[in-house]
Structure formats: structure tokens, C-alpha cells
Specification:
Mean pLDDT: 83
Low-confidence stretches: none
Order of helices and strands: HHH
Strand content: under 5%
Shape: globular
Structural class: mainly alpha
Radius of gyration: 12 Å
Protein name: H repeat-associated protein N-terminal domain-containing protein
Number of helices: 3
Helix content: 40-55%
Oligomer: single chain
InterPro entries: YbfD_N
């Protein structure tokens, strides 16, 4: 079975390439983790991501 990162990386990104700052898979994984940790709004997801900048150590949330 594929891991969640591999699955998220296969999802098509409908955004305009020149506007993309972060990989879609990174954003989706952070959202999934935040919601799993009871984030209930976009602001709470943002707060979750900012509070866990250590995720960058794993190559997540990196600018393309």
C-alpha cells in the first residue's frame, strides 16, 4: 500500500504554475495533519503549520 505522501503527490495541481509557492502535496498533508489534531478552520490550520515549522526538516513546506 502506498504511503500518504506518495498518494498526495499524485494528485493533479490545477493552480497556475507561476503562482505556486508550495507543493500541493505539502499543503494537503499539513491540512490533513491539522484536521486530525482538531483544527476546525483555515486559521487553525495556519496556526498548526506555523507552530510546526520543524516539518521542514522532513522536506515538507519547502518552497519549490
Amino acid at each position: 500500500m502506498e504511503n500518504i505522501v506518495a498518494i498526495m503527490e499524485k494528485m493533479p495541481d490545477p493552480r497556475q504554475a507561476w503562482k505556486v509557492k508550495h507543493k500541493l502535496s505539502d499543503i494537503l498533508i499539513i491540512c490533513l495533519l491539522a484536521v486530525t489534531c482538531n483544527a476546525n478552520s483555515a486559521l487553525e490550520i495556519y496556526d498548526f503549520a506555523v507552530a510546526r515549522t520543524g516539518l521542514n526538516l522532513y522536506g515538507w513546506c519547502m518552497v519549490q
